[in-house]
């Protein structure tokens, strides 16, 4: 507590200096919010969402936050980021303007709107910094409560580092597991399922997590009575309160305007969580929101006069001022001087940010104006071009878009004139340079990307037979992985004690312990979150989702958080999580879906690998552990008991990522598929050869990335025909596959027949063997589809079947 520190470790002057510094940070943050809103309303910024009203509790949180700790928060934590030295005034406004220079706007280089914060975990070459020597913030996302699942993993990493020995470079990521993961959320967002799922999981796991709920009684315009039972999140979570000999949470409540009590509360929470690995929930209530939810509206529309008056009186900064005056820390005049100094600092920082943002664009504007004037001199459309020049010149705050629009419109006017070539080259160069500011780092651009891994074939004994269950190959390869990489761990429903539902992890928990091979509850979103958080802290987690259909519970976390992480930090953070699941053919609606089109379109930024057997799958795991990129591996659900050869080099053979494999060469038609369906394709091809049709069969192996060597078009150049067989719905993954082959690889140049697809029906697969047969492509379907395509080519040789 502050009073204790004052008496025992600080002189009053030291204490006064500390408080005044805190106040100065709070008032600078408030002035940023006030001026930031004006910048939006004047059009310099597009949108603003600010942390005003939450300043004082964030100061208290920052005091307890140590090097090595991690934050997983939401978009009102600007005061906290300033207090830990990770956000300057100029950087705040650079984020508001969307500055695309990572040096000017280190949070996301303009890829996210202001208020989304991150620190840099990586060096320029993609290798890890020493995270124990800095205060860390995982990159924010906007989806409400979306920060919660990752928070669980950030906290669990401390538990792993404390209790698992032998992890390589552990000292770069943890000081014996003493780090806390700090979460923040608005009170209304605690209504989201992700909040409750995370709270429950943290209570079960007993991880060092401190969850702050900023409670200002509203969610945008909707009052807490419509959001939360009893209008009080800490009240309804009392059942989670940790008691003697139970797991659970410590639950603390504190008023958001009480500086002294806030500091004491956060110190108490940190002591509990850091030493004992007990999660803590701090309900910070009686907070205000002086400017309303965001710059898109006014809170006067939905708050009555009494509430607005109360908010003015109990504004946390006002209350801090009154307290400072009451105990003689500062006089009203001294406080006013600090306020004036803060306003000046913020105004200067704003001006510097705007100049840094605008000046490079003005230089580009001048460069183009000069070029267009030159082009106009010899053009028959001189007057029109000079009009573009005049409009561009008169724009005192140009956007890159406006510069490029003027250039491209001018290009149309000089298509057959002398100035075309120079203007065309300028546009191409400018677009290429500028596009990188918005499109780089979707995947790794370091030497640790998936393409850096060289293929290593499985090695077999001379007399090896296909007599080994596929699940045993996975099991023995995981055994090799866990021995080779002490930082790896796997967790999922039924993954631990029974060795997963298909026995691919048989005996692994007994050998490597319950922390490295762990059972978890039925909670897919936070299984993903555990993986993301631990991967952010240098571990190599494998998060298991029991069935592919269940991935839908976690698809939002994969799409909004994991898939965008490297992109939205411009390569400054990474989470090389491997997601393991199994899918395709089995029995019934909920265990045999193949929603691949939805998946691949939702998770760009994550590799999607679709091995046809367990040796391929094991090779993918081996490859991925040499990379720094996230991936989803979908094992064939009906392949665990199918027989394969037993390799000798477990943990070493590597399946190349993004490379297709030709399983059978042929001359008449190219058949493309992946996963379990390939076995049906292979059987159909055997039957087709009996009627004189020679099929080439290609296994895609991975959907993201897709055929990086363009081997598919080489096959089509030989056969001149294409059929894509897919057990997703019509227009699902098959549409993506066709787009890649026809448009990206230009295979239309070689086609003598219409490219076609054979997919599942539009409905979910019905139950049972007959349900499977009538819902998804069968051997007979494939045979007749191919035969029909050949009938169109040569009806005499291949007379119609029907």
Q: Gyration radius, to the nearest Å? A: 30 Å
Strand coverage percent: 5-15%
Global outline: globular
State the total count of DSSP E strands: 22
Strand order in the sheet with the most strands:
11-10-12-13-15-14-20
Helix content: 40-55%
Main beta-sheet annotation? 7 strands, mixed
User: Termini, distance in Å?
Assistant: 86 Å
Domain Transketolase-like pyrimidine-binding: 468-642
Function: E1 component of the 2-oxoglutarate dehydrogenase (OGDH) complex which catalyzes the decarboxylation of 2-oxoglutarate, the first step in the conversion of 2-oxoglutarate to succinyl-CoA and CO(2).
InterPro entries: DH_E1 (IPR001017), THDP-binding (IPR029061), Transketo_C/PFOR_II (IPR009014), Transketolase-like_Pyr-bd (IPR005475), Transketolase_C (IPR033248)
Keywords: Oxidoreductase, Thiamine pyrophosphate
Keywords:
802 residues; alpha/beta; six-stranded parallel beta sheet; 27 helices; 11% strand; globular; disordered N terminus; THDP-binding; Transketolase-like_Pyr-bd; EC 1.2.4.4; Transketo_C/PFOR_II
Report on the architecture of this protein.
The protein is α/β, with parallel strands linked by helices and 802 residues long. It is globular. Helix 22 links the parallel strand 14 and strand 15. Helices cover 43% and strands 11% of the residues. The N terminus is likely disordered. Helix 12 runs antiparallel to helix 13, helix 13 runs antiparallel to helix 14 and helix 21 crosses helix 25. InterPro entries: DH_E1 (IPR001017), THDP-binding (IPR029061), Transketo_C/PFOR_II (IPR009014), Transketolase-like_Pyr-bd (IPR005475), Transketolase_C (IPR033248). Its EC number is 1.2.4.4. Pfam families: E1_dh (PF00676), Transket_pyr (PF02779), Transketolase_C (PF02780).
């Amino acid at each position: 507590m502050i009073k204790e520190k004052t008496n025992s470790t600080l002189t009053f002057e030291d204490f006064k200096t500390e408080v005044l510094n805190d106040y100065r940070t709070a008032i600078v943050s408030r002035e940023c919010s006030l001026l930031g809103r004006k910048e939006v309303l004047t059009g310099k910024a597009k949108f603003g969402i600010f942390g005003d009203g939450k300043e004082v509790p964030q100061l208290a949180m920052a005091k307890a936050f140590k090097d090595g700790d991690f934050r997983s928060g939401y978009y009102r934590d600007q005061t906290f980021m300033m207090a830990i030295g990770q956000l300057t005034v100029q950087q705040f406004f650079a984020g508001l303007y969307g500055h695309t220079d990572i040096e000017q706007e280190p949070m996301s280089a303009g890829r996210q709107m202001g208020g989304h914060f991150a620190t840099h975990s990586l060096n320029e070459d993609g290798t890890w910094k020493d995270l124990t020597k800095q205060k860390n913030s995982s990159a924010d996302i906007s989806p409400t409560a979306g920060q919660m699942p990752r928070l669980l993993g950030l906290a669990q990493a401390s538990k792993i580092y404390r209790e698992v020995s032998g992890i390589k470079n552990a000292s770069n990521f943890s000081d014996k597991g003493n780090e806390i993961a700090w979460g923040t959320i608005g009170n209304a967002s605690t209504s989201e399922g992700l909040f409750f799922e995370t709270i429950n999981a943290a209570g079960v796991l007993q991880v060092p997590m401190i969850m702050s709920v900023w409670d200002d009684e509203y969610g945008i315009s909707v009052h807490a009575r419509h959001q939360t039972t009893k209008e009080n999140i800490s009240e309804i979570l009392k059942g989670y309160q940790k008691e003697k000999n139970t797991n659970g949470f410590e639950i603390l409540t504190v008023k958001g305007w009480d500086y002294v009590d806030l500091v004491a509360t956060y110190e108490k929470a940190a002591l509990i969580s850091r030493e004992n690995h007990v999660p803590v929930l701090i309900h910070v209530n009686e907070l205000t929101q002086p400017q309303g939810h965001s710059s898109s509206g006014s809170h006067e529309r939905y708050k009555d006069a009494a509430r607005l008056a109360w908010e003015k009186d109990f504004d946390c900064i006002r209350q801090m001022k009154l307290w400072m005056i009451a105990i003689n820390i500062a006089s009203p005049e001294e406080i006013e001087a600090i306020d004036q100094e803060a306003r000046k600092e913020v105004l200067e920082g704003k001006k510097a940010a705007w100049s840094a943002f605008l000046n490079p664009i003005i230089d580009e504007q001048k460069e183009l104006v000069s070029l267009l004037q030159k082009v106009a001199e010899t053009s028959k459309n001189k007057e029109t071009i000079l009009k573009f020049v005049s409009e561009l010149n008169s724009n005192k705050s140009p956007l890159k878009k406006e510069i490029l629009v003027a250039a491209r419109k001018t290009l149309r006017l000089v298509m057959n004139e002398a100035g075309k070539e120079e203007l065309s080259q300028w546009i191409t160069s400018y677009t290429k340079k500028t596009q990188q500011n918005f499109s780089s780092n979707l995947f790794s651009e370091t030497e640790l990307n998936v393409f850096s891994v060289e293929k290593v074939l499985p090695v077999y004994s001379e007399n090896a037979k296909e007599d080994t269950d596929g699940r045993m190959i996975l099991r023995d390869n995981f055994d090799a992985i866990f021995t080779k990489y002490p930082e790896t761990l796997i967790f999922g429903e039924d993954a631990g004690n029974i060795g997963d539902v298909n026995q691919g992890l048989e005996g692994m928990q007994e050998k490597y312990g319950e922390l490295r091979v762990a059972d978890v509850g039925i909670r897919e979103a936070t299984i993903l979150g555990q993986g993301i958080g631990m991967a952010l802290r240098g571990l190599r987690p494998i998060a298991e989702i029991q069935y592919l259909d269940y991935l839908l519970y976690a698809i939002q976390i994969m799409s909004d958080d994991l898939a965008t992480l490297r992109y939205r930090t411009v390569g400054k953070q990474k989470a090389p999580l491997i997601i393991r699941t199994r899918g395709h053919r089995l029995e019934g609606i909920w265990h045999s879906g193949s929603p691949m089109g939805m998946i691949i379109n939702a998770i760009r930024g994550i590799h999607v690998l679709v091995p046809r057997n367990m040796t391929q799958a094991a090779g993918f795991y081996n490859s991925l552990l040499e990379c720094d990129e996230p991936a989803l591996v979908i094992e064939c659900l009906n392949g665990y008991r199918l027989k394969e050869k037993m390799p000798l080099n477990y943990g070493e053979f590597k399946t190349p990522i993004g490379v297709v494999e030709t399983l059978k060469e042929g001359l008449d038609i190219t058949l493309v598929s992946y996963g379990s369906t390939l076995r049906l394709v292979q059987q159909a091809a055997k039957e087709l050869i009996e009627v004189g049709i020679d099929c080439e069969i290609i296994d895609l192996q991975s959907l993201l990335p897709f055929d990086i060597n363009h081997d598919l078009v080489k096959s089509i150049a030989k056969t001149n025909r294409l059929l894509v067989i897919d057990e997703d719905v019509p227009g699902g993954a098959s549409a993506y596959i066709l787009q890649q082959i026809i448009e990206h690889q230009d295979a239309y140049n070689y086609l003598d027949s219409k490219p076609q697809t054979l997919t599942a029906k539009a409905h979910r697969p019905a139950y049972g063997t007959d349900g499977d047969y009538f819902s998804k492509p069968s051997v007979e379907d494939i045979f007749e589809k191919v035969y029909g395509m050949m009938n169109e080519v040569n009806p005499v040789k291949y007379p119609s079947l029907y």
